[in-house]
Amino acid sequence: MHDLTGFQRDLMFVIAGMESPNGQEIKKELEVSQGREILHGRLYANLDTLVEDEYVEKGELDGRTNRYTITDKGKEAIAARYDWQTEYVSPDAKPAKL
User: How many domains does the chain have?
Assistant: First the structure.
C-alpha cells in the first residue's frame, strides 16, 4: 500500500467503509470529509488504477452505474497501513489543541 498515493488510500478507506458505493457516492463522501471538490477525472482515473491493481473490484449495477467494493487484497493493504501507522502514532493519540 506504500506505493499508492494518499488519494488512492483515501478512496480505499471510503470504499471499505461503505456498502458497495458508486462513484458519485464516493465522490460526495470525500468532498464532505475533506471539505474540497473532487474532480471527476481524478476520481475515476484513480478508481481504475485501484481496480487494475486488484485493491478494488468494480461491478455493474445497471447499464451505466458501477459499484465498487474492497477486495481481500485491499483489506489486507488497509490493515497493513494501519499497523504501520500505529508504529508511529498510538490509535488513541489525540492532537494537542492549539
Answer: 1
